[in-house]
Amino acid sequence: MKQPLIEVKNLKKYFPIKNGFLNRNVSNVKAVDGLDFTIYKGETLGLVGESGCGKSTTGRTILQLLEPTDGEVIYERKNLVEMNKKDLRKARRDLQMVFQDPYASLDPRLTVRSIISEPLEIHGLYSNGERKKKVDELLDVVGLSSFHANRYAHEFSGGQRQRIGIARALALNPKLVVADEPVSALDVSIQSQVINLLQDLQEQFQLTYLFIAHDLSVVKHISDRIGVMYLGRIVELADKNKLFESPKHPYTKALLSAIPVPNPLIKKERIVLQGDVPNPANPPSGCTFHPRCSACMDICRKEKPAFREVDGQFVACHLYN
Ligand SMILES: Nc1ncnc2c1ncn2[C@@H]1O[C@H](COP(=O)(O)OP(=O)(O)OP(=O)(O)O)[C@@H](O)[C@H]1O
Ligand SMILES: [Mg+2]
Question: 89, 153, 183, 300: which could form a disulfide with 191 (CB 3.0–4.6 Å)?
């Protein structure tokens, strides 16, 4: 039986847009607008969607690095959103993040040893000697070695820096790692090395991943299930194979058609999406995808489709009502 690790219920994050002159809230960017899903223990849940659809905000809001506007995040039967500071601090040890840009996310003034041992110090874990040993172990685990420990992050290549970021995220023995586009900033040749490392570590430490990426080809290899986001909502969530073999949502179909096929003999029809992603401060009525949808019906302009289960996959689309 699959056991839930994190349950996200009606999660919302709105960013206020202020009027410069009177500094009043004039409207909101609905970056995350009502998410319902579960992350199961030991799985990798991929989260994909175009730029600005709310992927990073989702990750950060789940980890309470951003305060949710509404909704619940249940971890070990407790709602992180309502937790007091002390309990949240403790829960955060289990919930870590790996960032997209290994150039910007590591402090260039710190040695690798300081970067990796910082979380241990913040949480007052281990004596100095034990901390040193722990950092050496972590470096080994991510494929670096202890002689790297006294160098500075800027002395390393992108792939190595991301290994340092991963070692730091693992320092507190987390249960969940939110990896926010962890390979997008890396050379294609390095990307698969880092993805393979993440997979090895998952097995070794029984980790659960929320793996965020722009496009489906990156998450295809690593994910067990995949959620497709569009304008602050998940429009489809399914087992990876189901999503690739029988996508339901027209947006998922369009994203899939954009993946290049290695075999030139296979002809694939490419669905070109019309227009850009709409402004999340002023989203379209009804189904927010309707202005770009080739299957748009009357109801799509008026009513927001519910997110419901169809043939074992979840989809928010009037075609399946
Ligand atoms: N701190 C903030 N203040 C105001 N608006 C924000 C803030 N952070 C994000 N947004 C807006 O929220 C929306 C979602 O942003 P988010 O960064 O979550 O998207 P994303 O899917 O991660 O995009 P990308 O693929 O480019 O990383 C965007 O419209 C963005 O401009
Ligand atoms: Mg992002």
Answer: 183
Long-range contacts, stretch 149-153, CB < 8 angstroms, 24+ apart: 149/111, 149/112, 149/113, 149/116, 150/111, 150/112, 150/113, 151/111, 151/112, 152/108, 152/109, 152/110, 152/111, 152/112, 153/106, 153/107, 153/108, 153/110, 153/112, 153/115
Which residue minimizes the CA distance to atom 7 of ligand 1? 15
Q: How many CB atoms lie within 10 A of CB 285?
A: 12
Pocket of ligand 1 (CB under 6 A): 15, 29, 31, 49, 51-57, 214, 280
Closest CA relative to residue 167, chosen from 69, 98, 227: 98
pTM, 2 dp: 0.94
- pLDDT reading at 218 higher than 90: no
Query: Which atom of ligand 1 is least distant from the CA of 32?
Result: 14
Distance separating alpha carbons of residues 69 and 220, to the nearest angstrom: 31
The predicted model gives 135-148 an average pLDDT of: 94
Helices (H), the chain: 55-62, 85-92, 112-122, 128-141, 158-170, 188-205, 216-222, 240-245, 250-257, 298-302
Residue 277: its H or E element:
none
How far apart CA 160 and CA 194 sit, in angstroms, is: 9
- CA-nearest residue for atom 30, ligand 1, is 52
212, 8, 79, 3: CA torsion to nearest 10: -90
Q: What is the DSSP string of 242-255?
A: HHHHS--SHHHHHH
Question: Closest Cα to atom 24, ligand 1: which residue?
Answer: 51
Ligand 1 centre from 276 Cα, in Å? 15
At residue 161, the pLDDT reads: 93
Under the banding of pLDDT at 50, 70 and 90, the label for residue 266 is low
Q: What is the pLDDT of residues 47-70, one digit of tens each?
A: 999 999 999 999 999 999 999 999
